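Quick one: RluA family pseudouridine synthase from Hymenobacter perfusus, structure tokens please.
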Amino acid sequence: MNRPNLWSERKEILFEDNHLLIINKPAGLLVQGDATGDEPLSAKAEEYLRFKYKKPGAAFVGVAHRLDRPVSGVVALAKTSKALSRLNELFRDNKVHKTYWALIGKCPAPTQGHLTHWLVKDPIRNTTKAYTERHGQGLKADLDYQVLGQAGNRWLVQVNPITGRPHQIRVQLSSGLGTPIVGDVKYGFLAPLPDVSIALHARQLEFQHPVTKEAMCFKAPLPHIAHWEAAEAYY
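--- reply ---
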């Protein structure tokens, strides 16, 4: 059995114990399989675990949350069904504190605040629309944001989503602040990035370990890509 290409040098693995596998996901990689048939992060994780522990059959990999394909950053995977069940509860009960970094083209006013919208997803177009008032079957979405400063010719904003809705940060920054994320042409940015990613990075996850109950905090380094270089000053 050959070692998988991904994680061959363990750069993407932020943490591993008997229950959790914490990964710094590269942009462009699905977290879980979809209709495209492309190999997702979950399958790569299973391959890694089978190799490491010399498992003759399948290894258990549970997905408790997802990042959009063009988004990079920290993803928590479960290695046991018990850990997955408890992780699902933590995410469902909003007991996971999530921090994202995003690059935007202009400084919003005000430079920090709270956004509330009701989001309606269009599954055909795979887009989400934000409304400032309660709307039909729309799901309430809340986030806090704070501009950290200028990063080259962009602005770096820290976002703490309180809820976890599809495309939430992307549509709320675009609709609520008029500041689409760099490269996110789906939500109003004028041009894509060369690697077709968007400048949104899941920087940190904080939660109580689902089994040991220890307080855990995982930080994912920024991708080594030109558009993120100026933001590294904010580490």
